Amino acid sequence: MIKLSNIEKVYQTSNIETLALNNINIDIKKGEFVSIMGPSGCGKSTLLNIMGLLDEPSTGTIAIDNKPVEKFTDKDLAYLRNQKIGFIFQSFHLINDLSILDNVEIPLLYRASTNKSRREAAKEALEKVGLSNRMKHFPNQLSGGQKQRVAIARAIVGNPEIILADEPTGNLDSAMGNEILNILLQLNAAGSTIVMVTHDENMAKKTHRLIRLFDGSQVS
């Protein structure tokens, strides 16, 4: 599903060269739920961004469904992201001036779909995360846990095969964090391939596999 081979990522300024990722080799199989753990600054989010085709590696290769993406145009990459990948961010990234329903519809605006089909898909996604009664509310009327559920609904509205979650429970208390993890486990059981960055060892243990990073390198 996602294969990274010999990935390195170097950030360079006029005076400093920083090796963010060093010789990363990961093969995520279809239907897996994989956690990525490591201390702050070890390259977890950089790795997730590369998996999601939001960032390019300095060296190495990326393949999605056995198709190398190095020669893809920006338009091809944007299409692949929109069709196959759903993103969940720690800070939600909701638009406060839009209703919850409108926020969830956003990924579908880049597809050739009708207003009616977009609206129905957004309603269905919100029902899956238990927020069908909040569709007309705005983000500032929701709790942190509810905002994260909206972010999950937005990530799954286009039925992506892959869900990439960057600290999806990081801003939540333990009870709400477990609620969010249970939603992800349900999505995985329904067939979604999920990669989750987390600091929570107990949550990581509930996934299929754990990848640890330290100073940009895999340590397990």
Features:
single chain; alpha/beta; ATP-binding; transport; six-stranded mixed beta sheet; 7 helices; Rossmann fold; ABC_transporter-like_ATP-bd; globular; translocase; Putative ABC transport system ATP-binding protein
Report what the structure shows.
Belongs to the ABC transporter superfamily. Macrolide exporter (TC 3.A.1.122) family. This protein has helices spanning 44-51, 74-84, 100-105, 115-128, 144-156, 174-189, 201-204, and strands at residues 2-12, 17-28, 33-37, 59-64, 67-68, 85-88, 162-166, 193-197, 209-214, 217-218. A hairpin with a 2-residue loop joins strand 4 (59-64) and strand 5. The chain has one domain: Rossmann fold (3-Layer(aba) Sandwich), CATH 3.40.50.300. The strands form 2 sheets. The protein has a 6-stranded mixed beta sheet with strand order 6-7-8-3-9-10, with helices on both faces. Strands 2-1-4-5 form a 4-stranded antiparallel beta sheet, with helices on one face. It contains 7 helices and 10 strands. The two termini are 20 Å apart. The mean pLDDT is 92.
Secondary-structure element order, as H and E? EEEHEEHEHHHEHEHEE
What is the overall pLDDT average? 92
The domain tally reads: 1
Under CATH at level 1, the class stands as: Alpha Beta
How many H/I helices? 7
Indicate the multimeric state: single chain
The low-confidence runs, each spanning 5 or more residues with pLDDT under 50, are none
